[in-house]
Amino acid sequence: MNNCEICRRIKKIQEGTNPYFVAELETGYVVIGDHQYFEGYTLFLSKQHVTELHHLQTDFKRKFLEEMCLVNEAVALAFDAEKMNCELLGNGDAHVHWHLFPRHKNDTPTPGPVWWLNRKIMFNENNCPTQEKLTQLRNKLSRELKLVLRKSI
Fold first, then answer.
1. What is the dihedral of CA 80, 82, 9, 92, to 10 degrees?
2. Max Cα separation, the chain?
């Protein structure tokens, strides 16, 4: 786990030093993505370090999936998404985490999945939010997440 980037980011959340942190849920942490080509790009990081979804115990897995759906809804509402792309990959960071992309018509040069976008464009430093923008993104998502969570009770 010492080599796990997700675990390092979670440790920063626990230490109060992760500026991308939005909220802690029962099974994971909600964070704004480092690059915001797709404004509102959010990640939901599992509190448990496992490499595959099926490695989670059944009750935790069910709750994790339920919470991911709630985070997904909050992202969609906060960033006025026309479509949401949700992915659990793990080829780069082998720690279960969800990528949640709010999508809009014509948000890429060619219609298709986010990964069809040239990496040099998607991960360009110009797409890193300023401190002010990051605060706005976090606040916007936090407000919607609280409403969605309240509604789900």
1. -160
2. 42
Token pair 């509402």 in the structure block, residue? 77
In whole angstroms, give the CA distance from residue 42 to residue 25. 14
CA gap 78, 141 in Å, rounded: 5
Helix or strand holding residue 122 (H, E):
helix 119-122
pLDDT of residue 1: 62
pLDDT top residue among 3 and 23? 23
Q: What angle do CA 114, 120, 122 make, to 5 degrees?
A: 35
Instruction: Write out the DSSP string of 3-71.
Output: T-HHHHHHHHHHHT--TTEEEE-SSEEEEE-S--SSTT-EEEEESS--SSGGGS-HHHHHHHHHHHHHH
pLDDT(2) > 80? no
Rounded CA-CA distance 98/78 in Å is 17
Contact 47, 29 (CB under 8 A): yes
